[in-house]
Amino acid sequence: MENREKVIIVRDLVKDFGGFRANDHLTFDVYKGEVFGFLGANGAGKTTAIKILCGLLKPTSGQVRVAGFDVYKQSNLIKKNIGYMSQKFSLYEDLTVSENISFYAGIYGLGFREIKKKRMELIQKLGLESYAGKLIKELPLGWLQKLAFSIAIVHNPDIVFLDEPTSGVDPITRRQFWMMIYEAAANGITVFVTTHYMDEAEYCDRVSIMADGLIVALDTPANLKLSFRAKSMNEVFLELVRNKNNSNQQ
Amino acid sequence: MLSVSAHELKKNYGAVKALKGISFDVSEGEIFGFIGPDGAGKSSLFRILTTLLLPDAGQASVCGLDVVKDYKKIRKIIGYMPGKFSLYQDLSVEENLSFFASVFETTIESNYHLIKEIYSHIEPFKKRRAGQLSGGMKQKLALSCALIHKPNVLFMDEPTTGIDAVSRKEFWSMLKGLKKEGISIVVSTPYMDEASLCDRVALLQDGIILKTDTPNAITDTIGKKVWAISSESVYKLMCDLSGYGGCYSVYPFGQMVHYMPADQSEELTLVENFLKERNHRNISIEIIEPTVEDCFMELMRINKEDKR
To answer: The domain spanning residue B259 has which CATH number?
Structure first.
């Protein structure tokens, strides 16, 4: 594993907001083609860390490289080489399915011919032929989610960031969605997933767990369960975050 | 008396059929859960039961009162926590609570014992504006406000969505406490793993109830074995097993897949050999009890086949 290519390198990342330390010396690597889970309680500092990784926020100190670029000096290059999908999706409701694909492909700098090709490929792959000319708001949630993900990787980025990607969909659609994620990973796209739902964490190759600005655990779900003698990631999480809270009170 | 009773409830929004004939009963003191994804009809159902929306057809009653005719009486005896945070963001924690108490013609003091366990977590912040609370604290305040008039039935629409695992656990233990006070609880969630925390659940999908029962009885009903299979790659397992002749269904479940053979007497070693031939390493196959999620997917599938 250690010999694999690293697409995210974080060393001693610190981010302060006034007197509040949101990220406290974070150090971790994410490998190419990995499905990496980024977990933590509400307010643990996940959002801050993700904003930094996406080039939207500068660290207070520490070294951070994403897709080979430095977050201090090359944040625009980072933005071009990553994809992002939030639980709210940022598709335009008043544009059609086709128009949304073309729009995002255009934003990411694809050429005219390439956009046309991608659009046809995507619509066919998702089986959306009958929806291509329909407005986004007419699309059922499950389709929306698959489309949003496909659009987030339309420019074949090195890394795609997913924020609670499967919340709210039915269990079958959810699994089809995970298959899309695995397929993307098999094609070399690194997938960085944040979630509150520990069963989602079970799908990741490795997960890190944050509490109070620190990374308190980082390993494969199997190893974490083993070392905490837990049956599920939910138990691991409760164990870690609770211990953290207890030690704070003392 | 039944706390909630619904018979053939239907609701359409234009061409969209949100509820296609929903029937169920909730007994007194029960924690009854609606489990289903977004768009299943959970919120429409909750809004009909809390008298905020009229059904197109069918009847429903809460504590014996009709949701259409007796809506004024129902509103006095129920608590409702909608999915979206709906308290006054510009009022403080304490002001929100006194507001709800006075609307229901009671005082914070008279029912304080009921909310004490929940409210004590946010009381240190009682001067803070509600809009500035964290997600977990907002939810505790919303629950306190929904309880301040000691309702007979508490309706909660997706109370745990977007809340971290620790707060979720706290939340469910609070519900157990309320049950002891004799309050009936109707709760909805898109998370299958929360089913086991309810006394009974209804699995809701596309406006119909797939199944209503205790969590244990639900996992017994599908009457099929589930094989938990793992190897070095879930992705490769999915690709290979879905092409295997004897496969009825196969779904990823975290670091393993859940496989159901078409023939229940299928030999384990046959599947194992098939996987070995396809270069899977560290293969493990274990026969397990199906989870509520396995059942949900199986019922979705049966339901779709029935339609054809």
So the answer is: 3.30.70.100
